[in-house]
Specification:
290 residues, 7 strands, Rossmann fold, alpha/beta, single chain, 10 helices
């Protein structure tokens, strides 16, 4: 009886090992193909001890900065950025360790995000003032940027801004899932199940392909998990910011309260683009009357 159990366990372990090996091979081959297929648009620019990816399109002032939500990246703005670029200059970027950006040499610290963005913009030669727009966790970072650099921020657009305070059980569950996702990605499980990358069909190419690719990449998901683990810290830092009274702030709901929701719905993206361009038009009108 015991020998039969041992044989069953041994066979089960062998099958599991082979499945993990096949999944990891599948993940590695697919990632290598995608690296060649989805090369970054825009530029890689020095921001401290590492390089960050920035993608700017359009011409005119003020420049719009797009701060992506949790698990997101520059390509997540694939529906919004082209609309805004028809009227003014607009830049999306990847935070350290996300998308095409390098990790750097330090652990994730939400307080460092606006500092790194500022360094990136200076080194990239982008001109102030900025209309800063952020979605979800990105809205918290956008508010932190406006608080740290008030003289450079002409307007603030907060899309699905996170609430301060808590839902501790939900936050713990989200953190657990985020910690698991890089390991599931390494074994090919996420890619095979399309657990994170499904539902991006409304994004145009090449944005849809890039987003789906990185939502199956362990390196991207590891950094995203680090951000999600510090969600409450980032939200608390943003809530403590005292914004200048004269700063124009627009807040709207578009993608919902899911902490990892991306703007993949065309109607919602058009709503966001309109709010951004309305802020741009108001600033231009103020400039003409001075």
């Amino acid at each position: 009886m015991r020998s039969s159990i041992r044989r069953t366990l041994t066979l089960g372990g062998a099958v599991l090992f082979v499945m993990i090996l096949l999944g990891a091979t599948y993940q590695g081959v697919a990632t290598a193909i995608e690296r060649r297929r989805h090369q970054y648009p825009g530029r890689m620019v020095k921001a401290g001890n590492h390089q960050l990816h920035i993608f700017c399109t359009g011409e005119g002032a003020p420049t719009v900065l797009l701060e992506a939500p949790a698990t997101g990246m520059s390509a997540a703005w694939g529906l919004v950025q082209p609309i805004v670029a028809m009227e003014t200059r607009v830049c999306s970027y990847d935070r350290a360790g996300l998308g095409w950006s390098e990790w750097g040499q330090v652990m994730f610290d939400p307080a460092a995000v606006p500092v790194q963005l500022h360094t990136l913009l200076v080194n990239a030669g982008e001109r102030t003032p900025y209309v800063v727009a952020g979605q979800g966790l990105g809205a918290a970072f956008a508010r932190m940027y406006a608080g740290a650099y008030p003289n450079e921020t002409a307007a603030l657009i907060l899309i699905d801004p996170p609430n301060s305070g808590g839902e501790p059980a939900q936050l713990r569950q989200m953190a657990r899932m985020a910690r698991m996702s890089p390991w599931l990605a390494r074994t090919g499980v996420l890619r095979a199940a399309r657990a994170l990358s499904d539902g991006k069909t409304d994004l145009p190419e090449p944005s849809a392909g890039a987003v789906a690719t990185f939502l199956n990449r362990p390196d991207h998901l590891t950094r995203a998990a680090a951000e999600l683990a510090r969600w409450s810290d980032a939200v608390a830092l943003a809530a403590a910011i005292q914004l200048p009274e004269q700063l124009a702030v627009t807040s709207l709901n578009a993608a919902g309260r899911d902490r990892t929701a991306l703007l993949t719905d065309r109607a919602a993206s058009e709503q966001v683009a309109k709010a951004i361009l309305d802020a741009v038009d108001r600033l231009r009108a103020q400039t003409r009357t001075r």
